[in-house]
Amino acid sequence: MFNIIQLIMAFFGSMGFAFIFNTKKDILLPTCMGGFLAWLVYLITHQWLANPYLCGFIASLFMGIYAGIMARIYKKPTTVFIAVGAIPLIPGSGLYYTIYYLLLQNTARSLYYAKYTLIFASCMSAGIIFINILFSQFTKQKD
pTM value? Predict the structure, then answer.
């Protein structure tokens, strides 16, 4: 039940950012589904893998594939789908606790969360970049 609530919140959280980014109405649902599906992949991989970084990387790979496919279907830039689809994966709690412990002057704990956040965000970026490189290799631009 808790996972279902998380998935619903991932969809609506993505929708909130889709509105902030002024996403066109014709692609509102597909962009929000990207966030939903990315979080679904994260939850599924998190059940089998103990490493949250690897889970984030795999979810970002999937999100990049989804964004590439939707961009070609709707003839929009992949950035539109990635920007909204990545929202549920962003390590917000890591950012929060980094600042929280920094304000409490607990430097060791703050550095722990800062390291976690930076590594997780790097894994997300690596997944997105890897898929974008693959898509660009398989779909050559016409001159």
Answer: 0.89
